[in-house]
Design goal:
By secondary structure, the chain is of the alpha/beta class. The chain has 14 helices and 26 strands. The strands form 5 sheets. The protein has an 8-stranded mixed sheet with strand order 1-12-14-13-15-18-16-17, with helices on both faces. An 8-stranded mixed sheet has the order 3-2-11-5-8-9-10-4, with helices on both faces. Strands 20, 21, 22, 23, 24 and 25 form a 6-stranded antiparallel sheet that branches. A hairpin with a 2-residue loop joins strand 22 and strand 23. Helix 2 crosses helix 8, helix 2 packs across helix 12 and helix 10 packs across helix 12. It binds zinc ion (2 copies). The site of one zinc ion has 3 residues, from loops.
Length: about 600
């Protein structure tokens, strides 16, 4: 509901605008900002999931506003949209399993309910004899808990069969340890490290979902695992088990004790040929990017301005109906539209408001207005932008980001990434004289929002934030809960910062912030390597999106763009391998790292530090 008093003031403001067409009153800005948030967060836009029709409607709306204020597509471009592709998931394209028993004709299994590729499987064909490796679990020695399903088993060039989950009858403590290594990605990696060519997963009769195939999961950080892997139904597995002469239930019961010395076994007299077909679903997301060209020529006509661009940006995508991860909705709200009014219609509206303000003001630098998509899936849009920038990023003086700025409470505004330039604290203090917020400055630029992409690209940057709340990532993050009066003030403060950046001949000097906490990797990991994985990458190996200043990776000479292919003797084909390989490292103990740089294979030694 609209506040009736605001509507009356809105009418007065319109009259004022007629009198002074180049000045906007605070009330006019406020009502326009409210319209931006209400529109972007409306049901019609269905939560603005990257690549969805709702995202396209939101982009159309933003483009309409950009055109209205006279913003232009970037130099050399005709469109405001900057598309990027990403892997939105995978589906089975017809996986088959052929069983051949000595002296019998082959049996072929197909159909998604019978044999289905695992989402990370290579799309390839393999064949060989079979080894049943129990639960396929390997606990790294560093955990001081000896459990290795492959101890004493030769699986080289074989197809391994593993049970899904982890031993059902193990005691609480054992389960807690084993559960960490029960992820099928980790099981696949363990099998591959031991030379297996393929992996088949079955869900034992004593486990939940007995006899069912494993659903293909949503996975944006997808890359092949270097292994052909599929799950089988109980029916498809029955002939294999029959060849072993044992009962699956009895075998599972032995493994279920959690006793690490229960050994797996080869199944003689039968071979399998597995042809896995995985279709990785590529989708397109759209950043929306425009600019307001500089209106004034250089201060000194003979000198070029130090860095002619300033950028403001916000992600406009959100979680859709929350079905692809990231949602914190309760079961009673499952599948509902996640409106994302604060996250991040508020930031998008702020970027529009800054553009609106500067569209009628003199500009000594070009002002870039950016609306990112794919943020909720892992900063995909801003990453795509900085990895293929439309102009050299060393000509960008600064980037200001807005993510969740609509819930100012008690006049408090948090500004993060202030450590990226020595200039920021003073500049913010000056701009805040008019705005009058109680500012909380945080130096750390390693934030889970698009500012991270720019920090990694060595651009001086800031991100504005008004704090987490009850409705964060839930359907209830709606437009009626936004504090519009203060949201407009956030835009005014930021405009003050932009004004100073525009007018100063010198651009902020970028400072690399030392950081003691990994942003990637698993929660609870005790180890610190200082690597920043590029989650959107599809290369074989781990592409570094950056390294943390002063961290072990930087000390080892690793840098953004390097692709780690081996660490501590473990081959790395993707982010999951890497995360798991980290479990093998010890704090203070140097580990060999093999990486690719510019097509050349290089080696270094990285010494992990303790995580603070
Ligand atoms: Zn956000
Ligand atoms: Zn979010």
């Amino acid at each position: 509901m609209r506040n009736p008093l605001r509507l009356v003031l809105g009418a007065a403001a319109t009259a004022l605008l007629v009198a002074t067409p180049h000045a906007q009153t605070a009330t006019a800005v406020q009502s326009r900002t409210r319209i931006h948030v209400e529109t972007l967060a409306s049901d019609k836009f269905e939560g603005r999931l990257t690549g969805s029709p709702g995202e396209k409607l939101a982009a159309d709306y933003i483009i309409g506003e950009l055109k209205r204020m006279g913003a232009k597509p970037l130099p050399g471009m005709t469109d405001f949209r900057m598309p990027f592709t990403f892997t939105a998931g995978s589906k089975d394209g017809g996986t088959t399993l052929t069983l051949t028993r000595t002296g019998a004709s082959p049996q072929i299994f197909s159909g998604a309910a019978t044999v289905q590729a695992l989402s990370f499987s290579d799309s390839a064909e393999t064949s060989g004899s079979i080894v049943f490796a129990g639960y396929g679990l390997v606990v790294p020695e560093t955990q001081n808990f000896g459990y290795d399903s492959y101890a004493g088993l030769d699986v080289k060039d074989k197809i391994v069969i593993v049970l899904r989950y982890f031993p059902e009858d193990a005691d609480q403590n054992t389960r807690a340890i084993l559960a960490r290594y029960a992820d099928l990605r980790y099981k696949a990696q363990a099998a591959r490290q031991r030379g297996a060519k393929g992996m088949l997963v079955i869900t034992g009769p004593r486990s939940p979902n007995a006899g069912a195939v494993v659903p293909m999961s949503f996975d944006t950080a997808i890359a092949g695992s270097g292994l052909v892997a599929a799950s089988l139904s109980g029916d498809a597995f029955a002939p294999i088990m029959a060849a072993s002469g044992k009962s699956l239930e009895a075998v599972q019961k032995e493994f279920d004790s959690g006793n690490p010395h229960v050994a797996g076994f080869a199944i003689p007299g039968i071979t399998v040929a597995l042809k896995a077909t995985v279709i990785r679903q590529q989708q397109t997301g759209n950043n929306v990017v425009a600019y307001l060209p500089a209106t004034e020529v250089r201060l000194k006509p003979d000198a070029t301005l130090d860095k002619p661009w300033v950028a403001v940006g916000a992600h406009y995508d959100h979680l859709g109906r929350g079905t692809t991860g990231g949602s914190l909705a309760g079961t009673d709200e499952a599948n509902q539209i996640h409106h994302g009014a604060d996250d991040n219609a508020s930031g998008s509206a702020t970027v529009l408001a800054i553009g609106e303000a500067f569209s009628t003001q003199p500009r000594k630098r070009n002002l870039l207005l950016a609306f990112w998509s794919g943020e909720e899936l892992g900063l995909l849009g801003s990453n795509a932008f900085v990895s293929k920038p439309p102009f050299a990023l060393d000509t960008l003086a600064a980037y200001l980001n807005f993510d969740m700025v609509g819930r100012v409470a008690d006049n408090k505004l948090t500004v993060q990434a202030t450590g990226t330039s020595a200039m920021w604290p003073k500049l913010l203090e000056q701009a805040n004289i008019v705005a009058g917020f109680d500012l909380v400055l945080q130096e750390d630029p390693y934030q889970p929002t698009d500012v991270g992409s720019f920090n990694t690209a060595s651009v001086a940057c800031l991100t504005f934030f008004t704090g987490a709340h009850q409705e964060y990532h839930k359907p209830g993050d709606t437009a009626d809960k936004i504090n519009y009066e203060d949201l407009v003030r956030v835009g005014e403060l930021a405009s003050g910062v932009v004004r100073r950046l525009m007018d100063s001949a010198e651009a902020p000097q970028f400072t690399k912030v030392e950081q003691k906490t990994d942003t990637g990797g698993r929660a609870g990991l005790r180890l610190f390597t200082g690597t920043i994985p590029d989650y959107a990458s599809e290369v074989k190996g781990l592409l570094l999106g950056g390294v943390i200043g002063g961290g072990p990776a930087e000390l080892a000479g690793l840098a953004k763009g390097d692709v780690i292919v081996e660490i501590a003797g473990q081959s790395i084909t993707n982010i999951y391998d890497y995360t798991y390989a980290l479990e093998l490292l010890k704090i203070g103990q140097p580990a060999k790292v093999v990486y690719m740089r510019g097509g050349e294979r290089k080696e270094t030694t990285l010494t992990p530090a303790a995580r603070k």
